[in-house]
Design a protein that fits this description.
By secondary structure, the protein is of the alpha/beta class. It folds into 2 domains: about 200 residues, 2-enoyl-CoA Hydratase, Chain A, domain 1; about 45 residues, Lyase 2-enoyl-coa Hydratase, Chain  A, domain 2 (Orthogonal Bundle). It is built from 11 helices and 9 strands. The strands form 2 sheets. The protein has a 6-stranded mixed β-sheet with strand order 1-2-3-4-6-9, sandwiched between helices. Strands 5-7-8 form a 3-stranded mixed β-sheet. The protein is globular.
């Protein structure tokens, strides 16, 4: 599948795909990228050889958000603005609903919808110089692509309001302190570090990881009792897999398990 604004590299042996936003100079999102991103994610979701996905940006930055030069005219029309938002939302839903783990390798600045796109991923690895900016307030817009929802879930209402309303730069280290970023690495190391994590996850118990992803997404809005019931169902499903049998056998034999994703 050929794309113009992104490219996909698959390592079938490791079970890892790397999806790179590649629209110079700053990987800003417009209609074509939104469409191609959704198509690529759908392909990766359906590819049985892919067990983990890395999302990154080409060049010095991750993603500058929406391309206002191209979108300003369209966003002036409410119907067009809704249509564009819904087109972008398909990618956010694709990441959330994909049973495979998706890791963001934030190599540089992630601004506006670019930060929202990273937040949609299951894990975020950021280079130390990377900066995160909810820049919407600077142009009179509100956070989109789920950014307000994700930030509120992660850091609470007051900190989310601060980052959204003031639009100030958040460093990689500060984002990590608040649990928004999982790993901070040296400049140039975000992608290799993310691929290393993806390889580890791709070699893991596929069904159990998919269940964990769903549990984490649901439990923020569940009562404890509802979560415990959901957990029982998830454990009942995980315990029926060949990976569970292999895990127990490996534990008993004092060796590392070799999971097959079954």
């Amino acid at each position: 599948m050929a794309f113009e604004t992104i490219h996909v590299a698959k390592d079938d042996e490791a079970g890892v795909a790397t999806l790179t936003l590649d629209r110079p100079p700053r990987n800003a999102i417009e209609r074509k990228m939104a469409r191609e991103l959704e198509e690529a994610l759908s392909d990766l979701r359906d590819d049985e050889r892919v067990r983990a996905v890395v999302l990154t940006g080409a060049g010095a930055g991750f993603c500058a958000g929406g391309d206002l030069k191209l979108l300003a005219g369209e966003l002036a029309d409410p119907a067009a603005a809704r249509a564009f938002m819904r087109a972008c939302h398909r990618s956010i839903r694709a990441i959330a609903e994909m049973e495979k783990p998706v890791i963001a390798a934030v190599n540089g600045d992630a601004a506006g919808a670019g930060w929202s796109l990273a937040l949609a991923c299951d894990l975020i690895v950021a280079a130390r110089p990377a900066r995160f900016i909810m820049a919407f307030v600077k142009v009179g817009l509100v956070p989109d692509l789920g950014g307000a929802w994700y930030l509120t879930q992660l850091v609470g209402q007051h900190k989310a309001r601060e980052w959204m309303m003031l639009g100030e730069v958040v460093t990689a280290e500060e984002a990590a302190r608040f649990g928004v970023v999982n790993r901070v690495v040296d400049a140039g190391e975000a992608l290799p570090a993310a691929i290393s994590i993806a390889r580890q996850l791709a070699a893991g118990p596929r069904r159990a990881l998919a269940l964990m992803k769903g549990m984490a997404a649901r439990y923020g809005s569940m009562t404890l009792n509802a979560a415990l019931e959901d957990e029982a169902e998830a454990q009942a499903a995980a315990s029926q897999t060949e990976d569970f049998q292999e895990g127990v056998k490996a534990f008993q034999e004092k060796r590392s398990p070799v999971f097959k994703g079954k």
